[in-house]
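Inputs:
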Amino acid sequence: MAATGGAIKAQPWKDPAARPYVQIDRVCKSFGDFKAVDDVSLKIYKGEIFCLLGASGCGKTTLLRMLGGFETPTSGKIFIDGEDMTGVPPYERPVNMMFQSYALFPHMTVEQNVAFGLKQDRVPKQEIRERVGAMLDLVKLGSFAKRKPQQLSGGQRQRVALARSLVKRPKLLLLDEPLGALDKKLREHTQFELVSIQDTLGVTFVVVTHDQEEAMTLASRIGVMNHGEIVQAGTPSEIYEFPSSKFVADFVGSVNMFEGKLIEDEPEYVRIGSEELGGTIYVSHGISAPPEAVVWAAVRPEKIFMSTAAPEGSDNVVRGAVQDIAYLGDLSIYLVKLPTGKVVRVTQPNTSRHAEAIGWDQQVYLSWDASSPVVVTR
Amino acid sequence: MALPYVWLLLFFVVPFVIVLKISFADVDLAIPPYTPLLEWGAKHALTIKLNFDNYAFLFTDSLYLHAFANSVKVAFISTVFCLLIGYPMAYGIARAAPNVRNVLLLLVILPFWTSLLLRVYAWIGLMKANGVINNILMSLGLIHEPLTMLYTPFAMYVGIVYSYLPFLILPLYSNLEKMDWQLLEAAQDLGCRPWQAFYKITLPLSRNGILAGSMLVFIPATGEFVIPALLGGPNALMIGRVLWDEFFANRAWPVASAVAILMLILLVPFMMWYQSVQARESAGTR
């Protein structure tokens, strides 16, 4: 899972003086009794690829549609480039959207689809021809200009949709599950293509996705959504390494969650007693939680070491039996059953072709560094 | 597999051949009132007498051409009005919430559950001099003497548009219902105002529905007989009426048959067009 960090190298969100390009200010959206978007505030900066990540029904698409002007916020305001977007219809916003279904016009050729927005703006014919041609070259569809959308493959349609939404040179591009309909290989390829196009054109992207891997690859920052709220916003590595809640830790990547109680709470370290684990967890940083509070220690599968010999120390060590092994080529996933009944997920890179094989039902020791667990209180 | 062909043979080809045959015969005082086409002559030879006079006659008396032209005109104007009224209705139904949609569709189909004749008589009751509409307008003081509506072209158009509207709405609805409404959002996103999006996206994409619906109104309306006869008054000269008069009043079966054949020839291109539209529509290409 490579966090490329997108195109943006600076981190404007850390600079309090920086002016956000998109400002979402306490926006709510209700459909009847259902709160689709609940009090969301966000600042998105120029040149960012901001991913809204969440399961289906979490409100991410509704939020995106409000940016595009297809839904009106029930309360709150959206500013784009400092301008209040309340009451501004989609056709007057400096924004273009790439729809999940691509929404290509079936009665027009690829070329006509891409030219549509420019014709609408009464751009001179000569310029339309040049810009459409350049855009089709950029998405490598130059030779498909005269085809109808029905005659294209899924990946080609996706690129037509991208070209059509970029040709008007919007300041802000909204992408709804842009890679959802593509197969895995094509998706990976297109992810990097999207980032490089974004880098070339300097457009700000807001991407909606339910695929955390996609969010990781594309995003400069990710906003994780749940039940209409942004539960955490940060860079991919912040989200992955420092999740602020059980939900985020669990949603982004896979994780082993151990419920426990603080038995030692010092500024430099904490020790957690976990019945689920059947042992103690030592964490080399302090946390803020009331004493005796229930906390969860989250340990990523790749941060767990597995050995047949007992490691030193009594913290962060537990014994179990290998219940299942999944060989994925580059790495293997081991499911290890603890005496308490808890099943721990461990991944190990297959660095050697003839590694010492750990087999089914084998007794192993699991251990991790004191810096590895993330302690969350909710 | 052969059943449809048997059906077509019995109920389409055979009657058609009979009508065709009569159209080439001559009037005769007999039962049926026309001369036979095939005769065994004196020398036991089979003679065929084809009489083209009926067709020639249709072109010499301006009444027939006039009736043909008028039928086409009435059918065309009715189709345009059906479109103007039916398109918004079909569009509204297609965009309604699914549970409302079924109720609206039912309301469109509901009139079919009573006889057409009955519904046309109901219009007479509405439009006659002391009918419902005039009574209401008079009691409201909007008019002082009854409007003459019945037995005018207006009443005939009302009747035809009213009767054929469902035939336009249903195919158009089934076309619009398949429409991906997100295309309209995409068009707006690219700078179209809603009416521009309608004109550039919805309208071209519903072309097949418009054509199919229009043909379903135009083709039968051209030969319409009952509605002009009941609502249109004496001046509503349409080919269906001429056919009726020739057949029953003049007992000129051969001429009536020639009129029928000519009308069929007139409508065949439209039917073929309709067929090709239907084929395109079911193939899913636009």
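The mean pLDDT of chain B is 89. Flag for discussion at group meeting.
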